[in-house]
Amino acid sequence: MFKEFIKKWRQYRYRFVPWISLNLKERSVREVKTGEHDKIIPDEQLVDSLLGILHALFDNEPSSRTTHHLNVSQHHEEAMSMDEMYELYKPRSFEDVRSLHMKNMEKLYDTTGFVIDRCPSQLIGGGRGVAVTRGKIPKHSLVALYPGTLYQPQDPILFQSINNPFIFRCIDGLLIDGNDSGLSKFIFKSCHGRERIGPFYTCDMSWLTDFPINPLGIGQYINNRSNDHPANVAYQEVDLGDSLQFHLRQYIPHAWYQSPGYSDYRCRTVALVSLRDISEDEELFSSYFTVVH
Ligand SMILES: C[S@@+](CC[C@H](N)C(=O)[O-])C[C@H]1O[C@@H](n2cnc3c(N)ncnc32)[C@H](O)[C@@H]1O
C-alpha cells in the first residue's frame, strides 16, 4: 500500500511541481538578490524629480513664509522674536490645508503634467485605489510616495501592525507604517510634533487626511496587481540625505519612530515609479509580492 503511494507520488510530483513554479514565475515578482538593488531608474534621477516637485510646492506657500524660511535655512536669519515666528508658522487650519492641497494639485499638474488622487477601485472588494485623474504619466516617472512612520527593524510595532494592511517592508528590514487611522495615526502625529524644530515642522502630517499638501503622498492606497490589471508602477526605495534642504522637509510624509537626532538626518522614502506610459483615468497597480533572496 505504502509502496503504491510512493510510486504514484513519484509520477505526480513532477506534474504538479513545475505547474506550481510556472504559476509563480507568471507573477510579476519584485525579486531582489542579496547585495543587489532593484532600481527602475537611477536614484539621482528620482531624487531630482522629487526635489523639483518639492521646490514647486514651496513656491505655493505665502511669500512671508518662504522668504523667512529660506533665510533661516541659508543661515541668514532675520531678527524676529519667537512670538512673531510662531505667529508666522502657526499650524494651518483645516480650511488652509484644504485650499493648499487644491493649489498644490494644480502645481503638480503644471510641474509634471499629471495629477493622481484616491478613488473607488475598479477591483471587486478593492476599496479605494489611486488613479490618474488628469493628464498622463510618462514611463519611468516618479508617480507617488509611500508615506508613513519609519521603523528600524528593532523597533516595536506589534500593536500597530494588528489588522493593518499598510505596513511596507523595505529590502533592509526597515518598515513603513502607512496607515492613516487608529494607533498608527496617533503615533505619526506624535512623532511629527516631537521632530519640530522651534516653529518649523520637519515632516508633513497632512497625508493622514484627505487633503495631503504633498499630493504625491498617497502611494499606500495603490492596490495590488491582478491577472486583469498588471502592474503599471513599482516601488523604488531611496534614501534622501543631504540633498533635502531644510525648508523642503515640511513636505516629506515620513517621521522616524525613534528620533535619529538632528545631526544625523537621513530619510528613507519609497517612491512609486511608472513602468510604462499611463493615461488619464487609468488606475495604478503595483506588485505587493516581493522576493528577497
Ligand atoms: C495597502 S491597502 C490598499 C488600499 C485599500 N484598497 C483601501 O481601500 O484601504 C491593501 C488592501 O487593499 C485591498 N486590495 C489590494 N489589492 C487588491 C486586489 N488586487 N484585489 C482586492 N483587494 C485588494 C486588500 O484589502 C488589501 O488588504
From TrEMBL:
PROSITE patterns: SET (PS50280). Transmembrane segments: none annotated. InterPro entries: SET_dom, SET_dom_sf, SETD9. Gene3D superfamilies: SET domain (2.170.270.10). This is Uncharacterized protein. The lineage of its organism: Eukaryota, Metazoa, Spiralia, Lophotrochozoa, Annelida.
